[in-house]
Amino acid sequence: MDVELPELPFSLRTYGPDGHWSYEDGVLTGWAGARQDRFVTPTGEALEPASDAPRLLGAPEGDFQLIARVTVGFNSSFDAGVLYVHVGERAWAKLCLEYSPDVPTVCTVVTRGHSDDANSFTVEGSSVWLRVSRTGRAFAFHASRDGRRWVFVRLFTLGDEKETGAALVGFMTQAPLGEGCVVTYDHLEFRDAWPDDLRDGS
């Protein structure tokens, strides 16, 4: 299913399980079902190939920033709302507001064959602003408690410039251990430029 959001200059398509995606009055809503996640553990065998989570993704061109305030209806450990980058089946990344495991936390996962997992900072309440940016072959993750001052979280690549230039970018929901959760994304914004400085809060 293709989805058009007025804030974004590219169309979105659904991937994975049904996320019951909807959009109304500037708010995008998605649902994660029971035990839905994307994570390839580095400590053992990969998850089953069928293991997946609802995603709504599109293909922006050139340099960009994708911004959203993410609000998660936390029910269980590791429930999360995600900004997601996909380059290949084993090359993707997540910027999450996650219950990790019992405190809302900004977390990141970068998967290159297997996934890593890193926590950044905790959040009071159930909302935070997230931002993913791209220039050339590089991606950057930022988060903000107020949507004005941004905290640099991560800088990484997922392949060469040709591969990352064709990346799919968008939204994901997950509930790895629980029975499901709802996530909303509002204050959606798209900028066709890389941030001037990754570390100055802008």
TrEMBL record:
InterPro entries the record matches: ConA-like_dom_sf, DUF1349, UCP022704
Parts of the chain that traverse the membrane: none
A Pfam family of this chain: DUF1349
Source superkingdom: Bacteria
PANTHER family: REGULATION OF ENOLASE PROTEIN 1
The protein's name in its UniProt record: Regulation of enolase 1
Lineage of the organism: Bacteria, Bacillati, Actinomycetota, Actinomycetes, Kitasatosporales
